[in-house]
Amino acid sequence: MDHAAVGSDDAVRHGRLRALGADIGPKLFITVVAAGLSALLIPWITGKWQDHKQQLELRTSLASEMSRAYTSKVENTAATQNAWTGAVHEWLVESGTIQAELTGRYGVTGIASKWQAYALAVTRYMRIGSQVAPAERPVLLREERAYVNESGLHWSALALTKGFKKNAAFRTSYTELGAWLLGRGDALVQEELRLSPRV
Question: Quick one: 30 and 82 in the same domain?
Fold first, then answer.
């Protein structure tokens, strides 16, 4: 047997193996890296998507609660004292629940703080539209005016202590104040929808 031929065959085989290794090596490396990344990235991306979906559901759910709570209270004024008392109680419970949810999801500052101030303004609004002690009305109006900070409203008409429910000027000003509060509530809902809650 010719040693030169055997050596030549070994060299050819080694050359083929090297060529095969040079061809397969990078492809195998890329395949392994891609498989590893897929194993890590796909669950991470899926988790992020699920977190995003859950955050979106939380935001829209809370926004719906906020909107429903203030809209029903600002639009409906009670006809009787018992109905008014029930409406105030319901508002305090709903707004307090929303306050707790906002605080839990976003912390005590920011939207939670803004909602708290807004909830107090809606409560004052409801009280301004009801029979309160004459000495209490100026305090309510002063605090409401400071919150609303809207000079276009006819605040003096809201100062009436007797017969105000039949007074056209009072009703007009009260409606304007209610519309402002509805707009502010809408703005808070839109702000909440842009936030990312802690899930």
Answer: no
